[in-house]
Each structure stands twice: as C-alpha cells, then as structure tokens.
Amino acid sequence: MEHLRFIRCRSEAEYETLRDLLPGKVLAKWGKRISAVNKDAIFFSKWTHVLKAEISNKSIKIYFNPDSRAPSPFSVETRICEIESGKIYSWNAKGLQLNEVLSFNFTQEIKDYQVQLYIDGHIAYSNSCISETEMPF
Known about the structure:
Blueprint: E1 7-9, H1 12-21, H2 24-30, E2 34-36, H3 39-42, E3 50-55, E4 59-64, E5 74-82, E6 88-96, E7 101-105, E8 113-119, E9 122-129
Parallel strand pairs: 1-2
Antiparallel strand pairs: 3-4, 4-7, 5-6, 5-8, 8-9
C-alpha cells in the first residue's frame, strides 16, 4: 500500500466496510487516504452494490444501487453479532432482487453489535453500531 496515493470507494457503505475490516494499525496508518466519492465522479455504477446503510440499536436499512443492470437473483446472508455477549443472529434468503432497500427491525434493542451482509457469499457491507454513552460530567 505504500505506493498508493488514495483509495476511492464508490459509496459511503463501501467506505464504511473497508474501514471496518482493516486492522487497527493499518487503518491508523492509511485511513486518511481512504474516501468515498460521488458514484458519477469515477465509477460507472452499472452493477449491484450497497450505496449506504443506516444502522441503529433498533433497525438496519441497507440501500442498494437502484441503477443496477442486474439486480437479481442473489443469495443474501446477514449476520449480526452482539459485541458484549458474542451472540449471533443471522438471516438468509435466496433469489432476492437488490435494487432498493433491505430493512430489518429488531424485536428488542441491540446495544452494540457488528453487522455483515454477504451477497452470493461475498462480503458487501460490514460495520459496527456502538451506542453512545453519556459522560458523567
């Protein structure tokens, strides 16, 4: 990576995924060179990919490229791992069309967790939801 000037991700979600998956030391060294750009600026954006994700302790919304030329059929797996307990929740589906929004509403709030979304067995999104705690001062 020493010869790289910049790493441009085609979406905010891919930026979050790259930063989430890089080891801490690598991120500390190279994180300033990673950015997300407008899809029209560099990328053709013809294929299915995650544009953005909204994650909270109550729900997850994954937004896909609506302009995909091949939005289906895909196999999707979503894994949610509670950070404190290590408990894992998963959801699988086959034959999905991924050109809009995939939503998950939790029956109970999940305080801190990591979410990973796989499309046809390949990681498409990864990030952590960490609850903000109030400072005692």
